[in-house]
Amino acid sequence: MQSALFSHSEAQSQERYVVQNPQMLRVSLTGQDDVLARKGSMVAYQGLIDFDGEYQSTNQRTSRARTGEGLDLMRCSGQGTVYFANLAQDVHVLDVDQDGLTVDSSYVLALDSTLHTEAIAVDSQYGISGSGKYQLNITGRGKVALMTSGQPLLLRITPDKYVNVDADAIVAWSTSLRVQMQAQTHSTGVWRRRGNTGEGWELSFLGQGFALVQPSELLPPQNAQLGQGVAAQYGMGQQGAHAQNQNNAWN
């Protein structure tokens, strides 16, 4: 049998994490170090691999209930090769070193089990819980695979070059950066977006590091009605757009 499909055969590499194609991750397991992956993200595997739900401590469950940030993970162990994907989103592999990585948990596909995760708060000039209020801090040494909706933009930040990013488009940034959430509005009501521009919360980064931005926003099209009340339309609360729009259904 002949087909152009045979050009998409599995990648051959000695690396632990390999981007098989732009939307699929290949992870090699040797029986020594486990990998933690997003629940339900396995699309194929070879060898003797076990999949188990990852235990969450009481502190982790409490933190997730309070902040909304956390990971639903499965532990993959054994010897062989596992392929992961999620809604055909683009996959990117990063090395986490002592500087750490801050990320929106909804963009994590897989990570080494040796890494540590913790929910952290992002400062707001207004003290209001909104978009980007909490994020996930990943520390230690290891690899993490992130997902984006479309090809991302990597912005390098230096002491003489600060960057502002839409809070609904940010994926991850260097933990060493100083970050503050702000609402760019000229009205006295920070709940109202900038006139009729459709722009709302943004994150301001200063220091030395990088910020990863995707060409998609978490919120649905402006004026779309989701849930109930003003807070829901602006993505807040259990009935808000953030709760209704898991995995970037609106692009």
Descriptive account of the structure:
- With 251 residues, the protein is mainly beta.
- The two termini are 38 Å apart.
- The chain has helices spanning 58-67, 229-233, 241-244; strands at 17-21, 24-30, 35-38, 42-53, 73-84, 90-96, 101-103, 108-112, 116-121, 134-139, 142-148, 153-157, 163-166, 170-174, 178-183, 201-206, 209-213.
- The radius of gyration is 19 Å and the shape is globular.
- It is built from 3 helices and 17 strands.
- Strands 1, 2, 3, 4, 5, 6, 8 and 11 form an 8-stranded antiparallel β-sheet that branches.
- Mean pLDDT is 75; it is low at 125-132, 193-198 and 219-251.
- The protein has one domain (13-214): Mitochondrial biogenesis AIM24 (Double-stranded beta-helix, 4-Layer Sandwich), CATH 3.60.160.10.
- Strand 1 (17-21) and strand 2 form a beta hairpin.
Element layout with pairings:
Elements: E1 17-21, E2 24-30, E3 35-38, E4 42-53, H1 58-67, E5 73-84, E6 90-96, E7 101-103, E8 108-112, E9 116-121, E10 134-139, E11 142-148, E12 153-157, E13 163-166, E14 170-174, E15 178-183, E16 201-206, E17 209-213, H2 229-233, H3 241-244
Antiparallel strand pairs: 1-2, 2-5, 3-5, 3-8, 4-5, 6-11, 7-10, 7-14, 8-11, 9-10, 12-17, 13-16, 14-17, 15-16
